[in-house]
Backbone:
């Protein structure tokens, strides 16, 4: 990590973003444009994400052209952009610095110090909740989050407050970027070990994240690793644990959301209600409010703001209800995440929980497939399909059928169905779903396309 920013954003710059349609790059482009820079971008195809980028004043080109980088100060490229991309090649020929997100963030932080939200899972929702809580208390932070947030109307934005709430990504070590004036860790589990090498190294990275935060440090007391690292880093804690500094009490779970009292140190408990189901979201809200309180936000005002939280794209996102079938989509891709999503469904009043899970990446499937055996207990009907490679090369013996084996070996008695393709999944669901069911599509790949297709099919079936 560079100790000082390698990019100067103190004056308006001309910046071109390659791969601007991706979730990370689109958010960066919007943030830079709103911070007063002249931003252009390109992507290989038209997508819905480009509309929000254009609305922020970014000049977008569909297709790649070497001429797009002439006269720019910096080129920002997604890690998914190959080195032989014509714009990247042209930038090298012209001597224009080609930056990755990790190069850009320190310069952004120099202007807008980070309140960084980290963790193996839950960080997107917690970052969104933190931003909304701080806004409700009048602090008006800027934000850079990994998915669009309904309440905020975007995934990124520059606002009038001093801080920037950052969803801090551990997958490539960028969560260590600063300056960090506040930091939160939701949980720590084995993931992205291709980058870290071992669980020990990953834990050391999270400890460095906490110790290197110059301000409030907060961890979830209910997660054993985060709790242990928090003790080492002298962090405050939140959760349902009896000794948590910010303790969840009188918890109520339903399909409409969660409600609880948050007991802060030396203060009267504050009533909290958010329209997101699941114990995991109660923890996310408690963490957001704990960090807000430690940043001197008025806790009652911050908590009240969460009552209107409109959710985050692909995080228990309700896509609609047709013919009495509710369809939900969620990005969960690790065993504990899947369990949490299905528990949230089970807390509702639906007749059956029908789940579709698409494994993500060969590497992740190879490492975790056996842990998925017991992860689907709250699904009345479980549909598994082939994995989504996310650009990885195949590995011998690794496929989605490993999960089928794991679930079958777990002794599951409820219906378990294998459908190779998403087309087959949709066809099965349209014959299976009935009034009172909730369908939840789960995974970080293109399984997200199943929900809209099922809703359309149900509507057609009802005509």
Residues:
């Amino acid at each position: 990590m560079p100790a000082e920013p390698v990019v100067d954003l103190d004056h308006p710059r001309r910046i071109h973003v390659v791969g601007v349609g991706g979730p990370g790059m689109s958010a960066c482009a919007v943030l830079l444009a709103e911070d007063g820079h002249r931003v252009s971008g390109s992507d290989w195809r038209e997508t819905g994400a480009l509309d929000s980028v254009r609305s922020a004043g970014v000049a977008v080109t569909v297709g790649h052209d070497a001429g797009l980088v002439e006269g720019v100060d910096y080129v920002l490229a997604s890690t998914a952009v190959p080195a032989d991309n014509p714009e990247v090649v042209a930038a090298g020929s012209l001597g224009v610095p080609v930056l990755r997100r990790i190069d850009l963030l320190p310069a952004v932080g120099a202007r807008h110090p980070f309140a960084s939200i980290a963790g193996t899972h839950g960080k997107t929702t917690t970052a969104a909740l933190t931003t909304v809580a701080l806004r409700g208390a009048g602090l008006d932070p800027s934000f850079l989050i990994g998915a669009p947030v309904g309440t905020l109307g975007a995934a990124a934005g520059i606002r009038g407050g001093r801080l920037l709430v950052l969803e801090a990504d551990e997958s490539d070590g960028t969560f260590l970027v600063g300056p960090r004036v506040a930091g939160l860790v939701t949980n720590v589990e084995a993931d992205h070990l291709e980058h870290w090498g071992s669980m020990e190294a990953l834990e050391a990275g999270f400890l460095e994240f906490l110790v290197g935060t110059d301000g409030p440090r907060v961890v979830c007391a209910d997660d054993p690793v985060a709790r242990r690292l928090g003790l080492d880093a002298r962090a405050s804690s939140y959760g349902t644990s009896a000794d948590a500094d910010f303790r969840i009490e009188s918890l109520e779970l339903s399909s409409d959301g969660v409600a609880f009292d948050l007991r802060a140190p030396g203060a009267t408990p504050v009533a909290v209600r958010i329209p997101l189901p699941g114990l995991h979201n109660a923890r996310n809200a408690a963490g957001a409010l704990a960090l807000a309180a430690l940043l001197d936000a008025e806790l009652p005002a911050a908590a009240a703001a969460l009552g209107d939280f409109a959710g985050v794209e692909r995080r228990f996102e309700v896509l609609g209800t047709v013919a009495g079938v509710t369809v939900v989509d969620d990005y969960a891709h690790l065993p504990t995440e899947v369990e949490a999503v299905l528990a949230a469904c089970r807390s509702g009043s639906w007749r059956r929980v029908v789940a579709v899970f698409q494994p993500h990446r060969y590497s992740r499937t190879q490492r975790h497939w056996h842990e998925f055996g017991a992860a689907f207990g709250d699904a009345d009907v479980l549909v598994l399909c082939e994995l989504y490679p996310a650009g990885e090369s195949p590995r011998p013996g690794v496929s989605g059928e490993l999960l089928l084996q794991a679930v079958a070996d777990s002794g599951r008695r409820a219906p378990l169905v294998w459908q190779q393709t998403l087309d087959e999944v949709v066809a099965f669901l349209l014959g299976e779903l009935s009034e009172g069911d909730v369908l939840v599509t789960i995974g970080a790949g293109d399984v997200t396309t199943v929900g809209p297709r099922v809703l359309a099919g149900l509507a057609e079936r009802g005509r």
